[in-house]
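Re-run with default settings, no changes from the original entry. Doing this only to confirm the output is reproducible before filing.
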Amino acid sequence: MIAPPNSYRTVSYLEAARRRGIDALVASEGRFSLVSEIADGLHINLEDPAALEQLLVANAAQPFAGVVATDDASVELGSRIAEVLDLPHNPPWAAHYSRRKDLSRQALAAAGVPVPLFRLIDLRQALAPQLKGIDLDCPCVIKPLALSASRGVIRADDRAEMLAACERVRAILAGETSQETFATTHLLVESFVSGPEVALEGLLHDGRLEALALFDKPDPLEGPFFEETYYITPSRHDVAIRSQLTRRVEQACRALGLQEGPVHAEVRISGGDGIIMEVASRTIGGECARLLQFGTGQGLEDLVISHAVGQPLAVKAQGGGAGVLMIPIQQGGILRRIEGITEARAVPGIEEILINIREGYELVPLPEGASYLGFMFARAATPAEAEAALRAAHEKLKIVVAPKLVLEDERGQRGIKT
């Protein structure tokens, strides 16, 4: 298992491996992790070409039965080691395309897959002439090439807002030392596609897409930022559009060269068709993978690991509805406390509430932020009831935030006071 040191997914994958009786070696940069399997695992630099040789040495000592890359940052290395060992994998170039929005857009458009109109912007050149030459009608969306969780994604309704958004994204990318140079010096400007959005979670078997779950996103994602909140399954769109969305995602996977393993796709519904916003060769982010237990009768990580070692599991559809709320960060500052959690947990249908950010830590909203306050899960007789339970529980939460004050003394030393 190849994982960045701060991955949400690592522990869930390790638990799934234990359930399946599979020994897992974690390859990560997390030498000082509190998770023993990471601290005691193989320590590699994901960006270092020598990482592949380290993995091959580990394989010589104890051969791998499968390779799982947990996050965008590790899918390319995962595909390279699996290719060398002739294990189920995506071609390395396909894994690269799936994590770079510009390359993905180009490949999909060339294959006739519906995507927004797009242009590439070079942040090293003067922005105003480049934006003036863009023949896209506003509104537009400015987005980084490789960031996730809607970070740095901004809607602009005119040229002035486009320029301001580009400068804001430039500042975000300036702090991304782990990204390749091209991804920190370029961004996309693409046409805004209005309409409801869904997320499809699937698993590829020799190029064939098995759709595991289709999530509705009932909150309109119209901007200026695109924070995701509610995911509800099963989808309430009619059968015809659900089938068309699945076909579009499978078509996108073929265009990107993806063959094996998990797929997470974001699709906008416009004019009765699916417009592909993203196809990633990884699982859904954060804690949302828990919903797949409801939809398939199996944990998502169990499905991915079993597929990787050639022991695929049967999927058994469940009845009723389920949903998750990614609790949004609506105000920046220092988290003081969260009130109303006990009342929220008592709402019928609420199964669990997880808070990921501790009191005293800073909250950073989108587009600069990269995390959620926590996650709330519900299960009910219907998708509508699951959504209603989440909304009722969310209303009971009161997030108390103190302002963050940055002070500077006479020597120019800076510090934070709250």
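The chain has a mean pLDDT of 92. Residues 326-418 form one domain.
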